Amino acid sequence: MSLPSLPWPLVIGSVYLRPLLPSDVDSAYLSWFYDPLIQKYISFANDSVTQKDLISYINQRSCKDDCLFLGIFSNKEGFFIGTVKLEPIDLVASSAELGILIGSSRYRGKGLGRFVLSELIHWLPNALGISRLTLGVSKTNFPAIRLYTSLGFVVTSSSEYSCRMEIHLSC
What we know:
By secondary structure, this protein is of the alpha+beta class. It has helices at 27-32, 36-41, 51-62, 112-128, 142-150; strands at 10-12, 15-19, 68-74, 80-90, 95-102, 132-138, 154-158, 162-168. It has an 8-stranded mixed beta sheet, with helices on both faces. The mean pLDDT is 94.
């Protein structure tokens, strides 16, 4: 089942979300993947990631019927702040797997992740009929676990290094 056509950009306060494009891949975006803090928690991030890798990843995601790979941009100057990925999206089961990255260090720790996720939690049931979000998180990523828990996510399982969390959404 294909995703419905959605009106972009989705403006939420001081930021907007829209599908990522290959033209969004610049040196600043690439530098996020070399950041030791990001490398600690994002498995794709490492010193060998290239601009070509990122463009390929975006192109692959944009061709999929079960994926929304969105950029987070500031309304004021259009600055690329981070990404939100919903993949896979299962419209039959009304569920999606969530990932978020605030890549720009100048926007980390300012509540932007909380704001974006809170807005998505309210938007997804109406826009896509999503009633359940799941995610995986490193057990040592305490700020992320605190954030997800404060938004209503609960731990559903765990392994030595990571845990699975979910939240049930309502319209």
